[in-house]
Write a structure and sequence with these properties.
Layout (H helix, E strand, L loop, with lengths): L2 E2 L8 E2 L6 H21 L1 H29 L3 E6 L3 E6 L4
Antiparallel strand pairs: 1-2, 3-4
Helix pairs in contact: 1-2
Length: about 90
């Protein structure tokens, strides 16, 4: 890598070789194009998948903190053969 000095920057910028960025970007474009074609071909199924995903996100965002408050301070223990008794305590932030 060779440093390039720009007049408006204090630190030199480095040229890097093209890594896997273009490959990953191309793969993402292909996957999104196929997903769009499937969604156009099967609109009811696509709507069901998107609705289920949205419902899962809402459930996790609302139920996660409530579950954390409910389990705050709870302790459980279990025996691991060869190790002994393991205790786990859940605490909130």
């Amino acid at each position: 890598m060779t440093p390039i000095r720009y007049p408006h920057h204090d630190r030199p910028a480095y040229r890097t070789r093209a890594g896997s960025g273009p490959i990953i970007g191309g793969f993402i474009v292909v996957v999104l194009t196929l997903a769009l074609l499937v969604a156009i071909s099967y609109p009811v199924h696509a709507l069901a998948v998107v609705s289920a995903f949205a419902a899962a996100v809402v459930l996790v965002r609302t139920g996660g903190p409530a579950l954390g408050r409910r389990l705050d301070g709870r302790m459980t223990e279990f025996a691991v053969p060869g190790v002994g008794t393991v205790r786990i305590r859940l605490t909130g932030r």
